[in-house]
Amino acid sequence: MSRVNQELGTKGKVTSRKVYDRRTLKTYDSCQSMVTSKLLVPLREEFYPHGKKYFSQEYLNGLDLEALAVFWMDDGCVVKANNVGLLATYCSEKEARHIASWIHDLTNLTPRLYLDRKHYRLRILSGDMPKFVTLLRPYMHSTLQHKVTLRYKNRTKNSEIYAASLNIAFADEDDKRARAQDKQS
Question: What are phi and psi of 76, to 5 degrees?
Answer without folding.
Answer: -105, 160
